[in-house]
Amino acid sequence: MMLLTPIWLVLAIPLGLSLWLWRMPTRFLAVIRALVMILLVLAACSPAIRLPSRTGTVVVVADRSLSMPTDAEARQLEAVKLIQSQMGPEDKLAVVSFGASAAVDQPPQHGEFAGFVSRIGQDASNLADALETAVSLIPERLPGRILLLTDGRFTGPDPADRASRAATRSVPIDWRLMERPTANDLAIARIDAPAAAKPGESFLITMWIRSPIRSDVSFEILRNGQRISSGSSVTSPGLTRLTFRDQAEEPGTFVYEMKVSSSQADPVVENNSAKLLVGIEGALPVLCVSGNRQSNLPGLLAAGGLDVVSVPDEQLAWTLEDLSRYAAVVLENLPADRMNAAAMANLAGWISGGAGGLMMTGGRNSYGPGGYYRSALEHILPVSMELRREHRKFSLAIVVALDRSGSMAAPVGSGKTKMDLANAAAAEVYNLLSSMDEFGCVAVDSSPHVIAPLARVDKTSGVRGKLLRIDSMGGGIFVYEALSTAAAMLAKATAGTKHIILFADAADSEQPGKYAELLAKCAKAGVTCSVIGLGSAGDCDAPLLRDIAKRGSGRCFFTNSPTELPRLFAQDTFAVARNAFLDQLTQFKMTGFMTSLAGTQFPSPLPLGGYNLCYLRPRANLAAMTLDEHKAPVIAAWQAGLGRVLCYTGEVDGKFTGPIARWDRIGDFLCSQARWAAGENPSLPQEMLITHELRDGCCWIRLHLDPDREHLPFEMMPSVQSLRGLPGEPPSSSETPMQWSSADEMSLQVPLSGRETLLSTVCVPGVGSVRLPPVCLPYSPEYQTPDSFGGPAALDQLAKLTGGKRRLELGQIWNDLPRKPQIMGVARWLFLAAAVLVLVEALERRTGLLTAIRLPRLQLAARVGRTTGKIVRSRRKKSATAAKAGSTAEPPVTDERTPKAVDEATQEAHDAQPDMLDALGQALRRANGRTRR
Q1: Residue 837 falls inside a structural domain
Q2: 774 or 476: which carries more pLDDT confidence?
């Protein structure tokens, strides 16, 4: 036993002193009180005992980066299941996956592993963070072991530093190698080219090819998707250089793609192609994307002096390198469905990161009716798009029929399932409605389950909470059951507009029944129906869902992204409400901000033919407003981050443009708005120069100052706004101040990783923000040829540092858990024993029962012992006296008692019983007196 906090032993001194000063009335109570004090002192010292144990935790660390073999995830799942099958009842298994970051896919538990669900970014191998996470999952003072399933290649910090923490805690690190073969790997080692060039300037592009053997290599070079060079070359072992020349044309960004191939089998084909970005300096054009292919807006903007590029939306990738070619984007009555969620996220990040501006025009396919409510663009617009009750003319009754089949339980990341997002979408519809509307919800699998009966919307009724708690269960969705139940609920509605929103899986919609007859009856009753399908238009049940929407006179949406569901539900609700776009002639007027925005004054314009009813956000600037009852914004603008956003709520070129289309100043009017959104890329003073280059995986940004300057041209330190974007993911931005690197130079090193594109804006106080051309790495570092880092050697070093090994038999890892003594505290048991003794003391004080039971027998035994001792001592004394007198008449007296002495002692004990009873009586009376009984 050990005492974890022995300092509390000092309490024994005052407690022992109190026990001596305030003595207990009986010896029995004194012993009880002493035991209580001893137990309390020991419990305060936190006593613990060591118990040997091998029960512990195994953490499997799975590498899910791009450098892993294509079947790595399946092999890792198989390894985890094998380890899981051999664990004991008290053992725990945890799973950590890593790439650019580390994430816990399963905390330490005994349950079955469900699979890898975390998003970790596959463009890097941050093994150091993975080890730190794994060590943190193993409880202190308990056995544990870590198993690495990786190729050993890592990026970021050295994992040996994190492994030292595992070594100090006696946590061995085992490893099993999973790697691609690297023999005969042909690769583009690097590309040398300028990061920027001037229009008309010629520049060189040098491509270095690494080949393990002499071989014939074919190459191809594309610029903005067009082939500009191709051919073949003979490479020698090592590095071979290929040089090309190109000439810059119009301002923007040139995207170069280099590809090489050979007749030899190549184990890593991903490093056979590389990308290069070269920025062409100059004033950038404005991109116009219109929902109307015959729109006259690009011509009006060009006539006003703007450099305009009109591109159909289907030809745009909406990546950062695409957007970097333009100063601003004009969205003319373009439905949000024509842009996916990633495109809108890239556009919003590109604007707020200071790389560009946005102008959005109105129409039935824009703003709320167009699906921009709850989109990634909504938060950067200077107007809001909610449906306010005071501007509603008609009531609305909506029933949402939700698919809650078993497929809806699939995870979608961030700890959410498809069902969670469908619930949030239904709640979004409920939030958009007001007390003048009616709402109902039914969840359907093989049978309908009414979640919220059709009733007036009452935001305090708890309906929203019920919607968010719908669980996924049952088989596939029975379509007819969903439609018939929703139609029956709407039959009791009193609202003028009745609508059904059917949400179903596009690949798992069953039992449509006689849906055509049902929808025909709904049409006669004025009930419409829209469908939102989770999946793609090519799924097996997509034709059925499209036909339901067509027969129901509604809309049909498909999406593979569950995160888009709230936006699509809201878009359909806006369309049904029918009053988010007011199609009537409306007069409007300019405000003072319009003069500062356009740089000129406009006379009173002609009326609008219609406009999107929106509301000005706080801190937004109002440049024009309607003169009707709504006093709604026609032109609103503000600064969104470092970018500019302007909203024009009228339709520019369409059915509802109205008389303003005949206004002689319409071109200048619209051109001034687009020009304000594009902003100006300020020119630096002559004593300042900004350069940037890509080197060693980093973008080096330098601000050069004139050595002969008399003072600093700025009062505050310049900073760099960095915007990073990965394909298919929203961009992220950060701001970092520049640092002095010499007396005349400030610099900043921005590292790049993976396939991300970096857009940088240098913010110089008092001068403005200067946009730099984008840069990117040729390809993910995961595909670089392994030189001297990582691999089996690095894994073996980690194992030796911590006492681990290369593990071949995975199931035996539980037998190799280190035997660690488990420390178990016993303080609570001592406290419990002390509490029991306190109860015993209280019982004895109040009743004296324990003493009364044991005292007669103890006193009798003591009296017999005393009497017998007196007789023995008397005989011994007589025997000694006789020996001194020399008497030999009598034999010597022995220690044995004679029968007569025993009889005499017994008789004295019986005679003494009345005396003992009297003593017990006196003790009982004293006890009663103390307890006042």
Answers
A1: no
A2: 774
826 located within any domain: no
331 and 473: one domain? no
506 residue type, one letter: A
Strand partners, 590: 624
- With respect to residue 657, please indicate whether it lies within any of the assigned structural domains: yes
Q: What is the pLDDT of residue 389?
A: 63
Cα separation, 106 vs 532, whole angstroms: 33
Is residue 545 within 8 Å of residue 556, measured between CB atoms? Answer: yes
Per the listing, tokens 């040089």 go with 243
One domain for residues 84 and 212: no
Pick the last residue of a domain from 224, 253, 280: 280
pLDDT digits 0-9 by tens, 359-402? 999 998 899 888 888 888 999 999 998 777 655 667 889 999 99
> Is 67 within a domain?
yes
pLDDT tens digits for 637-687? 999 888 899 999 999 998 899 999 999 899 999 999 999 999 877 777 888
CA distance linking residue 648 with residue 623, whole number of Å: 10
Closest CA to 358 of 286, 310, 292, 298: 286
SS3 234: strand
Which residues have a Cβ under 8 Å from the Cβ of 864 and sit 6 or more positions away? 905, 906, 909
Task: Give phi and psi for 419, each to the nearest 5.
Answer: -65, -40
pLDDT in tens, 430-444: 888 888 889 999 998
What is the pLDDT, as a whole number, of residue 870? 53
Calculate mean pLDDT across residues 572-594: 85
pTM of the model: 0.70
- Mean pLDDT in residue range 70-81: 92
Length of the chain: 933
Backbone angles phi, psi at 786, to 5 degrees: -70, 125
CA–CA distance, 338 with 323 (Å, rounded to integer):
16
> 792: Cβ–Cβ under 8 A, 6 or more apart, which residues?
152, 177
Question: Are 363 and 400 contained in the same domain?
Answer: no
Q: Which domain holds residue 757?
A: 688-772
- What is the pLDDT averaged over residues 887-915? 48
* Mean of pLDDT values over 282-289: 90
- Long-range (24+ apart) CB contacts under 8 A made by 614-620 are 614/367, 614/368, 614/383, 614/384, 614/385, 614/647, 614/649, 615/383, 615/384, 615/385, 615/386, 615/388, 616/382, 616/383, 617/381, 617/382, 617/383, 617/384, 620/382, 620/383
State pLDDT tens for residues 158-180. 888 888 889 988 899 999 999 88
Residues 97 and 236 in one domain: no
CA dist 195 and 248 (Å) reads: 12
Amino acid at 67: S
Strands 238-247 and 286-290: unpaired
Sheet-wide strand order for 688-695: 688-695, 698-705, 745-751, 739-742
Query: Domain total for the chain?
Result: 6
Residues 618 and 498 in one domain: no
